Structure prediction request, 655 residues.
Amino acid sequence: MAQTGNQKLTERFIQFYRNYYREEVGRLAEEYPDENRSLYLDYNDLFTFDRDLAENFLAKPDQMREYAEEALRLYDLPADVSLGQAHIRLNNLPTESSLRLANIRSKDLKDLIQISGTVESTSRINSRVVEAAYECQRCGMLERTPGEGNRLNRESIAVHLSDDLVGELKPGETVSINGVLRRISGSSDYYDATLHDKYVEVVSIDGAENYPYLTITDDDIARIVELSNESDIFEKVTSSIAPTVYGHKNEKQALAMQLFGGVAKTLPDDSRIRGNIHIALFGDPGTAKTSLLKAASNLSPRSVNVDGPQSTKVGITAAATPSSGESDPWELQAGAIVLADRGLVGIDHFDGLSESAQNALAGPMDQQVLNMSKASVTETLPAHSSVLATANPKYGRFDQYEPIGEQIDLEPALISRFDLIFTVTDQPDPEHDSQLAEHIIKTNYAGELNAQHDQTPNSEFSEEEVENVTEEVAPDIDAELLRKFIAYAKRNVYPTMSEEAKDAIEEFYVDLRAKGADEDAPVPVTARKLEALVRLAEASARVRLSDVVEEKDADRVIEIVRDSLENIGVDSETGEFDAEVVETGTSKSQRDRIMEVKDLISGIEEEYDEGAPVEEVLDRAGEIGIDKDKAEKVIESLRKKGELYEPASGYLLTS
Prediction:
C-alpha cells in the first residue's frame, strides 16, 4: 500500500478518476474480476489534469502505479465491490518516451518507456510466482519473498506480460509496448550491456501503425502527393525498381503493383479476400531474377528474404521450440511469412524448398493466416504477406514446347496461388543484346567513376562529370522516398472500382472464359484470375494515391495479365489458354492423352494372359496419333501414380 506520507498523491488520483474516468471505474466495478481486471488511462488525460503527476508517472512508474491502484481501491464504490487486485494501465505515452531498441541504455532502467516492433516469439502461458515461502528445516521459521516470475532472455528484448495481458500478443504482430524497463535478476549493474540483461514489464499495449520504424514527415508527404499527381508517376515508379537491370518492363510493372498492394476485404459473412499480390519469376539462369527480387525487397517497407534450399518448413512458417526457461517448456517462434506480416517475403530459388515447406506455404498464401498446431501449441498467426519467388527450370533452360508444370519442381497447388507468373527466358537477339550491353557498360562506368572519385585524391574526373554520368542510371524516385511512398499509400489509400473499370475487367474475363464454351475446349481461366485482376487494378490506383480505380488502371492490368497468361497459361500443344496448366500442372490435351493411353492398355490387356505388352501399346498409340515419346511419358506417369503396374517385364496391367 502507498505510504501515509504520500496520501496526497493517492487523493489526487481519486480526484482524477472522478473528473475523467467515473463511468470507466463504474464499468470496471461491474465487470471485475471475470470480464475485466484493468482500468486504462490515457496519458494525455493525466497530463491535462496534473502535469507533475503525469511526468512523475513516467519517471517513477512503480511508485505511481502503487498510488494509482491504491486510489482505485479507496474509490467510492458499493460496499460489496472490491477492486483489490485491479490494475492501472497507462497508454498513449508521449513521443519522448518512445525508444528504439538500439538506443535503450541502463539509464532508462525503471522508467516507463514505449517500444515498437514485431513480435518474434511467445512462450506458453505459465504460472507466475507472486510470493515464495521458504521454511527453515531446523527452526521451522517461515520466510516469504516476492517471486521473480518467468522471463525470457532473448537477442532483441524480452517483454513480460501478466494477468489480463497474458495471451494478448502473437508472433508476427506489430505493436507498441508501454512498460517499465528492468534488469534481469542477478545481472551486473556495473556495465551498460546489450539487451540480454534487460526486459520490459508491460503496463499496456497500443496497436502500432504498419512499419513503425519508418518515419514519414510532413515534407515527405508533400513530396509524395506532388509525385502522385504527375501524369507519368506509374512509369517513374516502375523505372525506379532495379534501374540497373535492363528491360523486363512488364515484370517491373507487376512488382510495382505488388509493392503497393490491393485492398484486403472483409465480407458480411466474415470471410476475407486478400489484397496482397503474389508473383513468381521462373526463368533461365542469368536473367536478373534475383536482382529484381532483391530490389523489390529493398523497396518494401517491411521484407524478409530467404533462400529456398537453405530454408526449412518451420523457417518459412513457424516453430514450437524448447524454451530456455526452466518452467517454460515451449515458445512459439515466427518464421519468414509471419515476420513479414504486411510486407514482402522474397524466396529465391523457390524450387529448392522441400515438399513439406511447399505444402505448408500454400495455405498462408491464400488465407493470409497460419494455423499452427505443434507440440501442444495451437495458434493462429497473422501472415498478411506478399510472396515474390524466383525459380529455375529443372533442366537448366525453359523449353517453350513443354508445360510449365513439367519444368518447375513445384506443387501445382502452390503454383496456382500466384496472381502473376512470368517466364524470363534468355533468347539471343542482336538488337536487344546490343541495348543490354550498352546499359550494363554504362551502369558499370558510372560505378567506376564514383569509386575513383571517392578513393583517389587526384581523380581526373570532376564531381560534375561524375554526377552527370551517375544521373543517367539513377532512379527517377530515390529508394528511401519510394519506400515511404509505398508505406503512405498502403496506410491511407483504399480505392474502389469505377463502373468503367468494372466493365473492362468483366469483359476481359468473360471473353476469355468464352473461349472454353465448346464441349471439348479447355477452361481458359478460373475465378482466381478475376480476383487477381481486381487486386492488381487497386494497386495501380494506389500508385496515384487515387480513391478510384479508373479504366486506365484496368487496361494496364489486363495487358500484364494477358502477357502472364501467354507465358504460362497456354497449352503448348494447342496454343489455347488452359487454366489446368497452372491449376493442376496438366493441360486438357495431356489429360485427354492420359485417358486414351489408359483405355488403350485396358483393352489390350484383355487380349493377353500376362497383360498388355509395352511394344504393342506403343504401336497402337502411334496408330491413334500419339507419338512414342509422349506415350512412354504417360506410361511412366501412370506407373508413378500406381495406376499401372508390371506383372512381368515388358507387360502392363491397370490397377
User: Anything to note?
Assistant: Residues 430-455 form the longest helix (26 residues). The two ends are 80 Å apart (CA to CA). The chain has a mean pLDDT of 82.
